[in-house]
Amino acid sequence: MDKEYNPNNIEANIQKYWDDNNSFVCKLDNPSEKFYCLSMFPYPSGKLHIGHVRNYTIGDVIARSNRMLGKNVFQPMGWDSFGLPAENAAIANDIHPSEWTRNNIIHMKSQLKRLGYAYDWSKEISTSDPDYYKWEQWFFLKLLKKKLVYKKLSEVNWDPVDKTVLANEQVIDGKGWRSGANIERREIAQWFLKITDYAESLLDDINQLSDWPSSVKMMQKNWIGKSQGALVKFPISSSSDSKYFIETYTTRLDTICGVTFLAVSPSHEIVKNTNNLSDNVVKFIEKCNSLKISEETLSTITKEGVDTGIRVINPITKKEIPVWVANYVLSDYGTGSVMSVPAHDTRDNEFAKKYNLPTKKVIKSDTDDAFTEKGILINSGEYDNMDYTTATNAILESLKKQNLGMQKINYRLRDWGISRQRYWGCPIPVFYHNDGSVYPVPDEDLPVKLPEDIDFNLDGNPLDNHPTWKYIKCPYTGKDAIRETDTFDTFFESSWYYLRFLSSDSKKEIFNHNKNHWLPVDQYIGGIEHAILHLLYARFFHKLFRDEGIIDSDEPFSSLLSQGMVLKDGHKMSKSKGNTIDPDDIVKKYGADTIRLFIMFSAPPEQNLEWSDQAIEGSYKFLKRLWILTHKIINMKEVVTNDSSDSNSINIKLHMTIKKVSNDIFKRNNFNTAIASIMEFFNDLSKYSQSNNINRELLLSGITTIVKMLSPITPHITQELWFQLGFKTNLMDVSWPEVDEEIINESRKEIVVQVNGKLRGKISIESNQSEDEIKSMVESNSNIRKYIDGCEIINVIYVKDRLINYVIQNEK
RNA sequence: GGCGAAGUGGUGGAAUUGGUAUACACGGCAGAUUCAAAACCUGCUCCUUCGGGUUGAGGGUUCGAGUCCCUCCUUCGCUACCA
Question: Which of residues 681-700 of A touch strand B (CB under 7 A)?
């Protein structure tokens, strides 16, 4: 037995013990209560970063502690292994994406093992593995059959020099990151998934997610963005043909008489289809086309626009108004055009002021700024004096009669564009005949595998450039055909991996229906940055699988924990800032238990965590003290039994600590305060061990309880100490300690005495003393009397086991 | 721009349901130990005119506000092709 705490030896031995005993393998058909604990699988970028360590430590602590409650815990791990960085590495380092990815996985897996995470590696999956993406292709074809997939033109960032489509993050200040060329927007035909068909159910079922953070639910609700409004047609006045009009969507039909112009997006049909636009307008549209396709960019630029010269008729007032093209109008929200009411919309107001467009007030208010609330109508002819609802209904009636409007529920959510013009992704399993008609690859020909021999030195999509891969014979007709060369968005793979973990070995089916009771996932843990996209897509896929009869539940994740980021000096760690921390260095120096303890102790999981090289020493020091005290207790030969009051208060503290730690871990996910209470009790126990009257049994019971409660957090040192305390079992399978509530209830309580809300003293009371008894104790206490004497007591507020507050007048 | 968070000592943070603000740590200071140092151990550590004051700023509700409400400031995440 080592005298000193030597984490590297201990951790290697304990990890070998776990390996030898297959400690992490989950028998999925075991009948005891299941607990599916899932941490978001990583993109194999090369090395684990500290954010991974945080994510996975939180998940592992939850998995291990629930196992101690007797649950059958399944905690798998895998790799989100398709994606852009592999292609970048291929170009930069002349290494094949599959090789780069494979190497990264090998390295990162060894790092995860070194950190002691209890993953069931027998169920490991890699999304770039054809065994995985085969099923994704299979499922896509089901959706195609159901007409939940379609193709349409959509804008991308185009790099005219590299002749390639760029991701938003690859466009820096409007220029391609590699070529430096000004990017252009370009429309290309792409595949879309009809997520909007599920908008209503994705919105409704948020109500089922009682154990999700409300912030995440709120963000999803707002992202889906359901609104009740109306479609309104504005006929074009220069055209006598009633077929020509501009359609707008509005939620404020009551303000229609205040519309002073229409604003359309630069890619609106009306702009595309009008031939005689002035140079001015054409130039403006060209300028807009050099902006990248992100909402963020579009909404933060200076608002600009030009008059197109086109005029339309307001269907209610019959007045003619101009049509402007404006850079802030989104082409894919609503109809891509806005009826602008400068008097009652902030953005329209700004724009009108800038270009001296008229403002017409139609809702009664005192302000000259944009008044955006609902109110009573004015300047609206026959609709004057109506309120919002009455006016909206009346105006809608008039529009309906003219065939120029209808009620409409609109969603901000758009269909999901899943096409990527990239190599390192899952091939979309369709092909085309020469006439452009689309055919699914037959199920028996799946998977459509990526070719290995690929040239990254050519411009454009490497898959499209491959000399032979895309040329095939149609399996139905034998005619010449061409494969789809787009691959899936990588969010596609991560939308269903949680389900595949349960049937990862099956070559016959995507999901074994006998595993249905394992869904939904009981606890999902991952970064807050995934609050919208990944989590919404996974929820969407779950419903698609349900409607395909593959699974039975409505939602994939019953409980969600969104952990915050790890910061250094208040900033996100990044290579460019040079403020990264390599977890390997920390593990080498202090061991896995120390980094796990530090990460769990330094902040609650949902908050950002500030990294500190100094503070980690403290965690190491604590483990050293734990090691030393445990050995001291083990080596105490004499049993000095003494019923001192010290022993009594240690025993009370022991049970109060178990209660608090259990509540913090299982109910609150506040591991930092759980650790703080363990430390507090440890400090008390340590002091007690140095006193004259000690009870060895109590010390043993105290330290054993500490070892158990720390074991999910620092599993190596605790297992080693467990052995040294004389136990032969696997600590992972030992039951969580139990609280003796009676010991806590019978202890004395300290309550606070306040006078007018100010702290004036403290008294110690028995557990069952009445309010009157407490009052007389307070009023006979001379230290407190001096604040009350000679004053009129107006009220006394007593909060059980907490405080008593005297409200007095004529305070001295 | 929109949506969602966060802001408490020198630092990370605690205060769970509106009830003792600063638990538990880090750092610092002093002591003990040592030939000396490291390690370990013990104590102290918000400000103060000693009445009191203090939770990003300013208002409000309440017997009582870090916590609830209003206005504002700063930082962070997401914003549909980073994952």
Answer: 682-683, 686-687
Question: Is A80 (CB) below 7 Å from strand B?
Answer: yes
Q: What are the structural domains, with CATH classification, of chain A?
A: 19-126+495-563 (3.40.50.620), 140-194+424-488 (no CATH), 226-411 (3.90.740.10), 613-743 (1.10.730.10), 748-809 (3.10.20.590)
Q: What is the mean pLDDT of residues A555-560?
A: 97
Q: Cβ of residue A754 near strand B, that is under 7 Å? A: yes
Please state whether strand B lies within 7 Å of residue A612 at its CB atom. Answer: yes
Q: How much is the average pLDDT of A191-220?
A: 96
**Following CA atoms A423, A424, A426, A432 in sequence, which dihedral angle do they give, to the nearest 10 degrees?**
0
Nucleotide nearest to A332 (CA to C1'): B80
DSSP H/E element including A399: helix A388-401
Task: List the beta strands (DSSP E) in A475-573.
Answer: 480-483, 487-488, 523-527, 560-563, 566-568, 571-572
List pLDDT tens digits, range A330-388. 888 889 999 999 999 988 999 999 999 999 999 998 877 888 888 999 999 999 999 99
Q: Say which range, A145-159, A280-294, A468-482, A561-575, has the weakest mean pLDDT.
A: A561-575
Mean pLDDT of A302-306: 92
* Other CB atoms within 10 Å distance of the CB of residue A687: 11
Does any strand B atom come closer than 7 Å to the Cβ of A798?
A: no
> Considering only residues 116-155 of protein chain A, which place a Cβ less than 7 A from any atom of strand B?
none
**Cα–Cα distance for residue pair A703/A715, rounded to 1 Å:** 15
Q: Is the CB of A672 under 7 A from strand B?
A: yes
Mean pLDDT over each residue of chain A, to the nearest integer: 92
A:176-195 Cβ neighbours of strand B under 7 Å? 190
